[in-house]
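Why does residue order matter? Because the sequence determines the fold. Keep that principle in mind as you read this record.
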Amino acid sequence: KDSVIPSIKDGVPASSVLTRDGEEVPYAYGDEISDEGVYQLKVLDENGNEKILNFTIDKTSPQFKEDYNKVFLQDVNVIAEDANLEGYRVTVNGYETTTNDESVEVQNGVYEIVAYDKAGNETTAVVTVQELINNYTSNMIFDHAVMLNAREGLNIEAFELQRKGINESTG
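Structure:
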């Protein structure tokens, strides 16, 4: 992830050529390689046998496409961008799952979403979606927290929220 010091079991090679992102770069066998990029190291032993090692150094965490650390009033697709994106860990209500989909659909609730890449770099967002109810009536029952859109002329003094069989009066 951070750096690489290539080595071979048979001692020091007779010659070596290192390329980063397709371009040859200066390299002496045994040097530490720490710049980000896609590498290929070709080494020749004294008998002319060639060995090739391909590797990537990636120190950059995935970046979310926008700032998701806020409250949304409708479902949202969370998208992270990274050339080496491997997937997402999603935690909601204490339960964790993983997915390698291109995005995570967030519906009503609070979600902790960790986007991670193949090198183990990660970034986290806490996404909250609160459903907006426009047409509230006093006999509505919800199984989750909601935000009520109080329009002009609508007088909501109290309502009951029933959640998991527990009645809570608010006003």
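The two ends are 54 Å apart (CA to CA).
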